[in-house]
Amino acid sequence: MPVLGTLVDAVRQEGFGISSGLNPTPYEDFYQAPFTWLTHNGVSVTDDLGVALQELYFLECLAQVRQAEPISPARCPCSVPA
Question: What pLDDT, in 10s, does the model give residues 24-77?
């Protein structure tokens, strides 16, 4: 089940606008156009790049074919040996 509508509704309920998934070509190849950013009163309030719609759709598809598993400390690439 697509989560995009739920996410957009949650953002709007908090008083923010959302812009996402724009084609960069009409915006002078603006590199941030495909990513998601939040706005408030027409001004961006996002400090960095957000998630692109393509990434959200990819994660939705991945979740349908593979169930998430907890990462044990032994398998975590960022864990520091004791």
Answer: 777 787 777 778 888 898 888 888 777 888 888 888 888 888 887 777 777 666
